[in-house]
Amino acid sequence: MSDSTASPTGTTTPSRTAALIAEAFGSFLLVIGVVATALFAAGFGEGTPAANKGVGFLGVAFAVGLTVVVGFYAFGPISGGHFNPAVTMGLAAAGRFPWRKVTGYVLAQVVGGAIATTVVVLIGLTGPSGWLKTAQDGGFASNGWGDLSPSHFGIGGAIVVELLFTAIFLFVILGVTHPSRGTKLAGLAIGLTLTLIHIATIPIDNTSVNPARSIATAIYGGGEALAQLWVFIVFPIVGALVAGFAYKALFDSPDAA
Fold this sequence. Notes:
The chain is an all-alpha fold. It has helices at 16-41, 56-79, 85-93, 102-124, 131-137, 155-176, 186-205, 211-221, 223-251, and strands spanning 5-6, 12-13.
């Protein structure tokens, strides 16, 4: 039996199952977009005359933003278009999403991301000899500090980045999707914000602000990526929770009206 419901206007409200599938699809799209761009296109032709064909950090940043824009408009009407455990928890903290649904959403997001990196691995297996090993030796686009940081920043930089920029991201999301003050261009605003965040922070820790993305790459990134993964689970979530509670207190409390 379907758990979808019909509204008084005759439209059908998506079922809980449909919402979870939409979150998995959206997370798959986001992760495969960023990881495939980072591993296949960012440094394309490095060390050869074809090097100028690589998209670099800027290309990766725009790939992330574009996948979020597309995913938001494609799956947002079904699930809300979170595609990120930190976003789901931040929305719950702000009173915009029921806590009882958080676990299901987070699991769907993590599964979608893991499937995406598995697909990238399968593609890599068909590539030039040694491509997959080289990608894994380089951390497989995993988040991290030290040797896993593109510019060799330390753990402190990674913590500040994940706390601060996830909080900024949540403030933008909560603002542009507000029930009464939001905008129909919310998906575009969210995607551009994520692009900006990646442009600013990829050199520091490869930019997470999304635990599902970090888990997905660490699975194939090796021991160091897995050992550092906790930072990219804990601090994006903390940043999102702080932003969610703060937004609710500052802008949605009776005193703020």
